[in-house]
Specification:
Blueprint: E1 2-11, H1 27-38, H2 50-55, H3 58-76, E2 85-86, H4 109-112, E3 118-120, E4 132-133, E5 149-158, E6 169-173, E7 204-208, E8 214-220, E9 231-236, E10 244-245, E11 250-251, E12 258-259, E13 261-267, H5 269-276, H6 295-302, E14 308-313, E15 322-330, E16 336-337, E17 342-345, E18 348-351
Signal peptide: 1-21
Protein name: Intradiol ring-cleavage dioxygenases domain-containing protein
InterPro entries: Intradiol_dOase_C, Intradiol_dOase_core
């Protein structure tokens, strides 16, 4: 059976701090910082914009797009287009989010593909120590990484106007099936003696939102690493402050990057368990932290932020792939500095010595690289 449940996307807090929950970093310190900042956040979700979205026909368009995407992906992968769906449970704090609703092939798509699950991305948030600037504008980011195919539809909604946020570049990155991030050399991030990882780019990329505020990514389901529940990072770049380098399909601001919002996408525990039973995830020897034990995730939920989005299996088994979607409410007027862990340039990857991270990669030579210039042979979108 194809399952439809929820993923979690959390609002995260404190751009200036680089104490983050990655291998070698202090999870408790980040959780405490975020908890303090979340107290001052007024959460506004998609539910509060529902009337405006309905009136504009956006919700109808969302449902049609998601249903169409599901069928196109099934056709592309040679899967049964008539496979049944199980509807999600809309209770936001349920542990599994699997539903007892009676859903069959004749169920109205509006039951399955609505935007009831959403998240508020709070202003001023930590991007974590593993953010890398200079990545390609591309939707397909898996490169040669093996894992369960993941297709993610992310829609940005302005919290003030309840309108879609078009033409915003969304940065997207996560670890591979065995818990390793590209572009980073650090203790706990795979083989820290492998200096070549500083030059890798897998599972990183940017997309510009369309007229309906939607960016679409093709990736693999992320793996796990010690101390954190399975998650994906997202970071938006401020409207009207992003210039594309046409010669290499990157954005400007390699050394002066800004953000309007940052968040982390989490996944339903039942879905994680199903994925973790497959290879190469099952070969991951790092400790698995479940959602219930993730201190950062728990802070988000305790702050009454509705963090849930939906997903469906593309086929009868999780290994056939997953389509997931989320509508994210953000304050499009925000603009904060970003301190990346590394830069990817025409000369390869370089550690940002000012980031406070623990990487062992090369340091960027002063004045040696034009901002946002990627090396020749950089993988295409």
């Amino acid at each position: 059976m194809v399952h439809l449940a929820t993923t979690l996307i959390t609002a995260v807090v404190g751009v200036a701090s680089l104490v983050s929950a990655h291998p070698g970093h202090n999870v408790k310190a980040e959780a405490a910082e975020r908890a303090a900042a979340l107290k001052s956040i007024h959460a506004r979700g998609v539910s509060q914009c529902s009337s405006a979205l309905q009136a504009r026909g956006l919700e109808k368009s969302n449902i049609a797009r998601r249903e169409r995407t599901l069928q196109q992906l099934r056709q592309k992968r040679g899967l049964d287009a008539r496979a049944p769906l199980t509807a999600r449970d809309t209770s936001p704090l349920n542990e599994t989010h699997h539903s007892s609703m009676d859903v069959n092939l004749s169920t109205d798509p509006s039951v399955l593909f609505a935007s009831e699950g959403s998240c508020v991305l709070a202003a001023d948030v930590t991007q974590g120590p593993y953010y890398v600037t200079g990545e390609l504008i591309r939707s397909a980011i898996a490169e040669s990484q093996e894992g369960v195919p993941l297709y993610l539809d992310v829609q940005l909604i302005d919290s003030t106007t309840c309108k879609p946020v078009p033409e915003v570049y969304l940065d997207f990155w996560h670890c591979n099936a065995t818990g390793v991030y590209s572009g980073i050399i650090a203790s706990g991030n795979g083989n820290s003696d492998d200096a070549s990882n500083i030059d890798t780019t897998f599972l990183r990329g940017l997309q510009k939102t369309d007229s309906e505020g939607v960016a679409f990514f093709e990736s693999i389901f992320p793996g796990h690493y010690t101390s954190r529940a399975t998650h994906i990072h997202v970071l938006t770049h401020p409207i009207n402050e992003t210039t594309v380098n046409q010669n290499n399909n990157t954005i400007s601001g390699l050394y002066t990057s800004h953000t309007s919002h940052v968040g982390q996408i989490f996944f339903d525990q039942d879905l994680i368990s199903a994925v973790e039973a497959t290879e190469p995830y099952a070969s991951n020897t790092q400790d698995l932290t479940v959602n219930a034990d993730d201190s950062i995730l728990s802070q988000e939920l305790e702050s009454d932020i509705d963090p849930f989005v939906e997903y469906v299996y593309l086929g009868k088994d999780v290994s056939d792939g997953i389509l997931a979607w989320v509508s994210v409410v953000m304050d499009a007027s925000e603009d904060s500095d970003v301190t990346p862990a590394a830069y990817y340039t025409e000369e390869g990857g370089f550690e940002n010595e000012s980031s406070g991270g623990s990487m062992g990669g090369g340091s960027a030579p002063s004045g040696a690289m034009p901002s946002g210039i990627a090396p020749s042979g950089f993988p295409s979108s």
